């Protein structure tokens, strides 16, 4: 009698544990994301557009807008250009979360801003690249980065 050979299944390789994906930049804590990622990326983009020397700072302060309640504070990215024109802009976050409502206001010279505008209101997904792009787009809308 011939022995029947049955194919034994090869032992399966040990299942590899899935590598945990590092958290997205946008999922990092607000202050860490802003100071370590957004501010440097925006500074680099502004320099590339010829706006060197802009002082960018993340502060929790009241709105510097006519008629705003000075008791209420918001996280704001403040940008000040050291030119003779004294261009200043602020991106305001309603909460310490990049996914919260955002607003933009700007001023030139010593006068406080008079208008606060919604910023990135239609975006469902907020990414570092989109935040930088929208900021540049908004500053370009003021004709601060380039002239017509």
Main traits of this protein?
single chain, 148 residues, alpha+beta
Please, could you describe this protein's structure?
Helix 1 packs across helix 2 (128-141). The N and C termini lie far apart (95 Å). The protein has one domain (28-141). It is an alpha+beta fold and 148 residues long. The chain contains two helices and five strands, in the order αβββββα. Strands 1-2-3-4-5 form a five-stranded antiparallel β-sheet, covered by helices on one side. The mean pLDDT is 82. It has helices spanning 30-48, 128-141; strands at residues 55-61, 74-80, 87-93, 102-108, 117-118.
Share of helical residues: 10-25%
> Could you state the oligomeric state of the chains shown?
single chain
Q: Kindly state the mean pLDDT as a whole number?
A: 82
What is the strand tally? Answer: 5
Determine the number of helices (DSSP H or I, runs of at least 4 residues).
2
Parts with pLDDT < 50 across at least 5 consecutive residues: none
From the spread of the alpha carbons, the general shape counts as elongated
Structural class: alpha+beta
Characterize the biggest β-sheet: 5 strands, antiparallel
* Termini separation: 95 Å
Portion of residues in beta strands equals 15-25%
Overall radius of gyration: 25 Å
- Enumerate the strands of the largest sheet in spatial order, edge to edge or round the barrel: 1-2-3-4-5
- Summed up, the domain count is 1
- What letter string, H or E per element, gives the SSE order? HEEEEEH
């Amino acid at each position: 009698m011939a022995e029947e050979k049955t194919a034994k299944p090869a032992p399966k390789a040990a299942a590899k544990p899935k590598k945990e994906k590092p958290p997205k930049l946008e999922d990092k804590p607000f202050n860490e994301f802003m100071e370590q990622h957004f501010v440097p990326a925006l500074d680099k983009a502004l320099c590339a557009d010829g706006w060197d020397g802009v002082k960018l700072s993340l502060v929790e302060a009241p709105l510097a807008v006519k008629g705003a309640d000075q008791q209420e504070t918001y996280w704001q990215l403040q940008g000040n250009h050291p030119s003779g024109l004294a261009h200043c802009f602020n991106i305001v976050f309603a909460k310490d979360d990049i996914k919260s409502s955002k607003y933009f206001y700007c001023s030139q010279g010593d006068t406080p801003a008079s208008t606060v505008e919604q910023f990135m209101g239609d975006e469902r997904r907020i990414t570092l690249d989109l935040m930088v792009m929208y900021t540049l787009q908004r500053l370009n809308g003021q004709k601060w980065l380039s002239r017509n």
